[in-house]
Design goal:
Keywords: ATP-binding, Nucleotide-binding, Transport. One of its GO terms (molecular function) is ATP binding. This is ABC transporter ATP-binding protein. Residues 4-249 form the ABC transporter domain. It contains ten helices and ten strands. It is α/β, with parallel strands linked by helices and 249 residues long. The chain folds into two domains: 1-79 and 167-249, Rossmann fold (3-Layer(aba) Sandwich); 91-166, no CATH class. The strands form two sheets. The protein has a six-stranded mixed beta sheet with strand order 6-7-8-3-9-10, with helices on both faces. A four-stranded antiparallel beta sheet has the order 2-1-4-5, covered by helices on one side. It is globular, with a radius of gyration of 18 Å. Bound molecules: adenosine-5'-diphosphate and magnesium ion.
Length: 249
C-alpha cells in the first residue's frame, strides 16, 4: 500500500475525457514523477488530489483516508501540500514574513492577523521558520521583500512556505517550468536536499525529462488521460510506449 492510492479515477469535462481509469500508487518517502505530453491530464489529476476538482468516479486515499469530498484546506491539513506552477508568495512582505504566514493559517483556512501579531515573536515558531529558510538557503535574505527576489529564490521561498507546514506529501506541478537551465539545476539540487533531509513523499508533475530522471524513483506516464506505463527511470527511458506518446509533440 502506498501513502497515496488513486483507484479507477475518471474525470470528464463535458464530452472530453480528461482522466480515464487512472490508477496510481505512490510509495511513502519516494519521489514519484508523473509525465506525459501536454493535455495528458497531469494537472487535472493533481487537482483531484488536492480537492480543487472532484473525480466523477473512483477513489483517492491518502494514508488510508479518503480525500474525496474534503475541501482543499482540509486536505492540506491531512498532510498534502502543493507547490504551484507560479510561486504564490506575497511580494510586499519580507521573506521571513512570508514563511511565517502558513504558521498562522487557522483550521478553517483563514489567516488570523491577531494570532500572527501575538505570536510572531514566539521563539519556537521563529526558530522553526528560520530553520526552513536555512534549509532552502534563504536565511541571509530574510529581510528582503519577496517581490524583488529572483525567480529561483521565489521558488525556494515558496518551498519553505510549504515545508513549514510539515507536509507528508509534497505535490509539485512543473516546478521548473519557464526556468533557465541554471535555475532548473538549482531546483533539482534543492529538491534532492529536501528529499534527503526529511521524511517526505514527493509527487512531481514534470515536462522536463532532465528533471524527472534526476529525481524520480518511479515514473508514471500519462497519455490522453490514461496511465500507459509505470516503472523505474531506467526502464522508462527508451520505452516504446513512451516514445510513441511523445511523438508529434
Ligand atoms: P496537462 O496538465 O497534462 O497538460 P490538463 O490536465 O491540464 O493536462 O488537461 C487535460 C485535458 O483536459 C486537456 O484537453 C485540457 O484542455 C482539458 N481541461 C483541463 N481543465 C479543463 C477545464 N477546467 N475545463 C475543460 N477542459 C479542461
Ligand atoms: Mg498541466
Amino acid at each position: 500500500m502506498g501513502i497515496l492510492e488513486v483507484k479507477d479515477v475518471n474525470k470528464n469535462f463535458g464530452g472530453l475525457k480528461a482522466l480515464s481509469d487512472v490508477n496510481l500508487s505512490v510509495r511513502e518517502n519516494s519521489v514519484h514523477a508523473i509525465i506525459g505530453p501536454n493535455g495528458a491530464g497531469k494537472s487535472t489529476l493533481l487537482n483531484c488530489l488536492v480537492g480543487k476538482l472532484i473525480p466523477d468516479t473512483g477513489s483517492v486515499m491518502f494514508d488510508g483516508q479518503s480525500v474525496l469530498g474534503r475541501k482543499p484546506h482540509e486536505i492540506n491539513q491531512m498532510g498534502i501540500s502543493r507547490v504551484f506552477q507560479t510561486p504564490e508568495i506575497f511580494g510586499d512582505l519580507t521573506v521571513f514574513e512570508n514563511v511565517m504566514i502558513p504558521c498562522f493559517a487557522s483550521r478553517d483556512g483563514a489567516f488570523r492577523m491577531h494570532a500572527y501579531e501575538h505570536t510572531r515573536h514566539e521563539t519556537d515558531i521563529v526558530s522553526m521558520a528560520e530553520q526552513m529558510l536555512a534549509d532552502v538557503k534563504m536565511l541571509e535574505k530574510r529581510d528582503i521583500h519577496a517581490a524583488s527576489l529572483s525567480r529561483g529564490d521565489k521558488r525556494r521561498l515558496e518551498m519553505a512556505m510549504c515545508l513549514v507546514q510539515r507536509p507528508r506529501l509534497l505535490l509539485l506541478d512543473e516546478p521548473t517550468a519557464g526556468m533557465s537551465r541554471a535555475d532548473t539545476n538549482n531546483t533539482i539540487e534543492l529538491l534532492r536536499e529536501i528529499r534527503d533531509k526529511r521524511d517526505i513523499t514527493m509527487a512531481i508533475i514534470e515536462h522536463d525529462m532532465h528533471v524527472v530522471f534526476s529525481l524520480a524513483e518511479r515514473i508514471t506516464v500519462l497519455a490522453q488521460g490514461t496511465p500507459l506505463v509505470e516503472d523505474t527511470p531506467e526502464n522508462i527511458k527508451g520505452h516504446p510506449k513512451v516514445q510513441e506518446a511523445y511523438l508529434g509533440e
